[in-house]
Amino acid sequence: HFLGPSYNLSVDEVLDTAILNASSFGFFDKAVHHIVTQSGEERGVVLTPDGTTVALLPLLLGIESGLKASTDGTPPAGIFPLTLGRRLGLSFLSLQEFPPSYRLGPNGCWDSVKHPKVFKLSKPATLVTDAIINGGMDGLILGMDLSNHSAPQQALSELLKGYYNFTLHEMRGLDAVHAHISPRRRGISKSILEPLDLYGLVMETLHLIWKLEKTEWIALDKGVEKAVKEGLQEFAHKYWALWSALMATSTKAEVGTSSAHTPGVTTV
Question: How far apart, in whole angstroms, are the C-alpha atoms of residue 103 and residue 258?
Fold first, then answer.
């Protein structure tokens, strides 16, 4: 994990200089820890204003990577492995005996929309649930925005509000919006990642993991490359191609109707 210098400090040293007190620090640490229980409850996720369930861990890793890059005056190196690449690669490999469509997801539902507390998955979990994908995309997008050295500095709270709570003016559909907002996460992440060699990046990430864990022998498995290629094709189809088709369909509808029914978007 990409935790910065504080990772090397003791708990007492962290709390001495932290904004959060011990109780809040413990809650925050528990809230961002992503797990799926035996009963299929996914924790470490939140329901955002756009109606999407987002895992906090990849979101925060992307934000931290972007902030560090901005502070250091360098590109956000490693932001893809941190937000999406690591989980994607490991999920593809762990389920390579199953069809590619079984190696991603699933989604789930909350016990309440007004007061959400428990999020239950619809099927057995992979290492990249939809919430992990959503959080990874958001972390990637916001991290890239924060690393933009030429952009004016903005409070993180304002950045998050602008991304997750967006006001759409009448007679404008989402296709006419160029700002980075959460309902467009799939299209924006596609524009960032599609030009890159994702296969090479995922394989590079896996080789680093194997080196750190001293399991380089896994690279000798001839099925690794095939599993990653098939998995990335399924990822692009499920999270990019289907989104593009949905947006193309929505533009044919009346703009006022489509925008008014877009989760997390307010029309004025």
Answer: 32
Please give the angle made by the CA atoms of 176, 263 and 186, to the nearest 5 degrees: 60
Among 156, 159, 105, which Cα is nearest to 134's? 105
> How far is C-alpha 31 from the chain's CA centre?
16
127 alpha carbon, distance to own chain's centre: 13
Q: Which residues pair with 265 in a beta bridge?
A: 166
pLDDT tens profile 166-221: 776 655 666 666 689 999 999 999 999 999 999 999 999 999 999 999 999 999 99
Alpha-carbon distance 35 to 13, whole Å?
A: 27
Tokens of 31: 């809230």
Distance from the first to the final alpha carbon of the chain: 42
Instruction: Give every residue of the chain whose pLDDT is below 70, as ranges.
Output: 1-22, 168-178, 243-268
With a CB cutoff of 8 Å and minimum separation 6, the contacts of 151 are: 145
pLDDT digits (tens, 9 = 90+) for 230-242: 999 999 999 998 7
pTM score:
0.84
